[in-house]
Design brief:
By secondary structure, this protein is of the alpha/beta class. The protein contains 28 helices and 17 strands. It folds into three domains: 315 residues, no CATH class; 147 residues, Reverse transcriptase/Diguanylate cyclase domain (Alpha-Beta Plaits, 2-Layer Sandwich), CATH 3.30.70.270; 244 residues, EAL domain (TIM Barrel, Alpha-Beta Barrel), CATH 3.20.20. It is 59% helix and 12% strand. Bound molecules: ligand C2E and calcium ion (2 copies).
Length: 753
């Protein structure tokens, strides 16, 4: 048993555990003796021993609480507050008895009442601690609690009316109010506990039933006391409620401190409607009694209010259900169902307009790398960004995952394109989540109505096809055209063709020189794959790599590319050209078997590992940093060079680079392009270069396509540059001639030598 109750272990040795049970056993035994004594009455002179047994049980209960607080070392506020409540009440009783001085009872109220009163805020505190664990109290819970409180008040108004009425003949009005307030507070506590029990995910500990029992006993005693307040003497049966109540609450606290799993955890506790059922039954009972005998009008009014309020959720249930079913919980936007419902209305009215499908790029990587809560926060912020340029009448929905949809009435083709650009531009600034600064982009597909159709599902399909097109061409947005049609079928056909291409060897590598900036020599090239499609001609990698990745064909393709590149390097070497080759690897290829596979390949061709470099994009590394760092370290230890590709497009921090086994950093093309227009870009590039150097990494500038940028890069100390300014990716046969013609000293010697 002890194994499943971890806090027992925290409490210390088994011996201490046994000691802590003594107050519990004492409380149970003394309470039992009290009850037996009460039943035997005169035969055991209960009026004498009863008082002592009662006080004994309460003091033992305090000891139980002290042990519970010590056991949990003040870490559980439920235990601390509950224990303080029990102690306050007992202190009140001890004071009451010690100041009796031979009387049988004090006046209606005494100084002890201060301690008695303290019991309630402290107990409420214990319950509030539990509520704090519930994120955002939902309004049904609040409503249920209000119904419960009203029903309780109605009951009290009925039961206690005689007390209030007789008030004039007994004590002062103030005394009567004090006496009446206790049962009201008891019922409020019971209501609160009922509400907590009925809400999912809250836990009042394994012995929650004892808490309910204790509070009910308390309420019964307080009601009985209020009704017979003039006749009360110490040691009468009324005391039983208080004494056993305190004992039960102390045992509940002991249960909380011992921990263990309450069966309510498995949602087998009170059903959520229990509170409502009990409350309405009580209210109906009050009304029925009101018909049979005269009761306080206030009680009837309260009972009627209870029933009215209980009916509210029923009235709104239908609306609530509709709202729930058409709203996305995370972003509070309409969901797919909401979109369709709204669109149906708009398209039915023969509106013209544009439907945009928005799909975030590489959202999965963010989710995998930074966790789902960051992913969720990102989606919320992205949805807020997209909402910025929209007007209230525009339809904006989340379709699920990282997909959103927008519908704008009365938009022309040109206007739709402008809107798409504006939506894209909303993501230019990185999104800040905690300490992470996340740069994300979106691909947008657009379908126009009535041009592309007036039927919802047709329009949605076309927007989806256009989106897929925007994504696969990395164009940002794409307006549906009939050429994109039979999208699904086309994708399938492409997939079949891709499989065939792998088997038939329709892939070819082109090589782009990486130029050493100090001397313009070329000692390495990057291999870039091309697909020689039998019908469509040569296709760029961006048009088929996403599909290959999606279809799980990447490892196969990478193997082909690696074999071709290593083979080519060894052929160049045989021809006297000593250059190394860089191969791009997708994240899915970084598998534990990769080092072995590559080393075998190198050995087969007699190529030194130093001739091969692997380019891996920053975000691929971030997706599973520990795992990939391990594999890369093995490759690098074997002599293979590692380059971090597209650096700056992901969301890794520069500090993270320190832990990466890498030789080279490739600054993404977007930075280099920006240098022409944005003076700040140069500064940024300069500081990245400095930092990379301090980490012993070479820096390659990608996409250098003009002389000015090159001059600036040289001045900033960049090590290598690659781009159309020097050369486009070249077929293998053209590499050696290009180098002979263009490249200067370093290569020339290696070529000639
Ligand atoms: P990358 O690794 O960033 O490769 C550089 C891309 O930029 C190449 O496009 C290249 O043609 C292009 N480029 C080079 N200089 C310039 C320039 O001055 N201006 C402009 N606008 N572009 C320039 P490419 O060949 O279309 O490759 C695109 C991407 O496809 C590559 O980006 C790489 O991520 C991926 N890729 C290419 N081949 C392979 C491969 O064999 N395996 C894997 N896994 N990915 C590959
Ligand atoms: Ca690359
Ligand atoms: Ca790159």
């Amino acid at each position: 048993m002890r194994a499943v109750v971890p806090r027992e272990a925290v409490g210390g040795s088994a011996e201490r555990t046994e000691i802590s049970r003594i107050p519990v056993i004492t409380t149970v035994v003394v309470s039992a003796l009290y009850v037996v004594g009460l039943l035997l009455g005169d035969r055991v002179r209960f009026e004498v021993i009863g008082v002592w047994l009662g006080i004994g049980a309460e003091v033992a209960a305090v000891a139980v609480c002290v042990c519970a607080v010590l056991r949990t070392r003040l870490t559980q506020w439920q235990v601390v507050f509950g224990g303080a409540a029990v102690t306050a009440y007992t202190v009140g009783d001890v004071y009451y008895l010690s100041t009796l001085q031979g009387q049988q009872a004090h006046a209606v109220i005494s100084a002890a009442d201060v301690a008695y009163f303290a019991f309630y805020p402290l107990m409420l505190g214990a319950l509030a601690v539990t509520v704090r664990k519930l994120k955002g109290v939902t309004w049904p819970l609040l409503l249920d609690s209000l119904v419960g409180a009203l029903a309780a008040a109605s009951l009290m108004a009925m039961i206690l009316a005689p007390v209030l009425r007789s008030g004039a003949g007994g004590g002062t009005t103030f005394e009567m109010i004090v006496v009446v307030i206790y049962p009201v507070l008891d019922l409020l506590l019971i209501t609160a506990v009922g509400g907590l029990l009925a809400s999912r995910g809250l836990d009042l500990g394994p012995r929650w039933l004892l808490l309910v029992l204790g509070l009910v006993l308390f309420a019964a005693a307080d009601i009985a006391f209020a009704l017979g307040v003039q006749d009360y003497v110490v040691g009468s049966a009324v005391d039983t409620g208080w004494i056993l109540g305190i004992a039960a609450i102390a045992l509940w606290i002991d249960g909380v401190a011992r921990g263990g799993v309450s069966f309510r955890h498995q949602d087998r506790g009170l059903p959520a409607v229990t509170m409502l059922m009990v409350s309405t039954t009580a209210a109906v009972a009050v009304l029925i009694i009101g018909c049979q005998m005269p009761i306080a009008p206030l009680a009837q009014v309260l009972a009627a209010l209870t029933l009215l309020l209980a009916a509210v959720p029923l009235l709104f249930r239908n609306r609530m259900l509709v709202t729930l079913a058409t709203t996305d919980e995370l972003t509070k936007l309409p969901n797919r169902r909401g979109l369709v419902t709204d669109l149906r209305g708009r398209l039915g009215g023969r509106h013209s307009g544009a439907l945009f499908f928005l799909d975030l790029d590489r959202f999965k990587d963010v989710n995998d790398a930074l966790g789902h809560s960051v992913g969720d926060a990102l989606l919320v912020q992205v949805s807020e960004r997209f909402a910025r340029p929209l007007r209230p009448n525009d339809l904006f929905a989340r379709l699920g995952g990282d997909e959103f949809a927008v519908f704008l009435d009365g938009l022309s083709r040109e206007e739709a394109l402008v809107v798409a650009q504006r939506l894209q531009a909303e993501l230019t600034e990185p999104i800040q989540i905690g300490t992470a600064s996340i740069k994300i982009s979106v691909s947008i597909g657009i379908a126009l109505t009535p041009e592309n159709g007036t039927d919802i599902s047709l329009l949605m399909r076309k927007a989806d096809i256009a989106m897929f097109r925007a994504k696969s061409t990395r164009s940002g947005h794409h307006l549906y055209s009939s050429m994109d049609d039979d999208g699904g079928a086309r994708k399938l056909r492409t997939l079949q063709e891709l499989r065939a291409a792998l088997v038939e060897g329709q892939f070819e590598l082109h090589y782009q020189p990486k130029v050493n900036l100090p001397d313009d020599g070329v000692t390495s090239v990057e291999a870039l794959v091309r697909w020689n499609h039998p019908l469509l001609g040569q296709l760029p990698p961006t048009s088929f790599l996403p599909l290959a990745e999606e279809a799980g064909l990447m490892p196969q393709l990478s193997t082909l590319v690696l074999e071709a590149a290593v083979g080519q390097v060894s052929r160049w070497h045989a021809d006297g050209l000593t250059i190394s080759v860089a191969v791009n690897l997708s994240g899915s290829c970084i598998q534990p078997d990769l080092p072995r596979q590559i080393l075998a390949l190198l050995e087969q061709h007699g190529t030194p590992p130093q001739r091969l470099m692997l380019e891996i994009t920053e975000d691929m590394l971030m997706a599973d940093p520990v795992h990939s760092a391990k594999i890369l370290a093995r490759l690098r230890n074997a002599g293979i060079q590692i380059s971090i590709d597209d650096f700056g497009t992901g969301y890794s921090s520069l500090a993270y680079l320190r832990d990466l086994p890498a030789d080279e950093l490739k600054l993404d093309r977007s930075f280099i392009t920006a240098m022409r227009t944005d003076p700040r870009a140069g500064g940024l590039v300069g500081s990245i270069i400095d930092l990379a150097h301090s980490l012993d990494l070479r820096v390659v500038a990608e996409g250098v396509d003009n002389a000015e940028t090159l001059v600036e890069l040289r001045a900033l100390g960049c090590d290598l540059a690659q781009g159309f300014h020097f050369a486009k990716p070249l077929p293998a046969a053209k590499v050696a001639p290009w180098i002979t013609k263009h490249a200067l000293p370093a290569t020339a010697t290696s070529l000639l030598g």
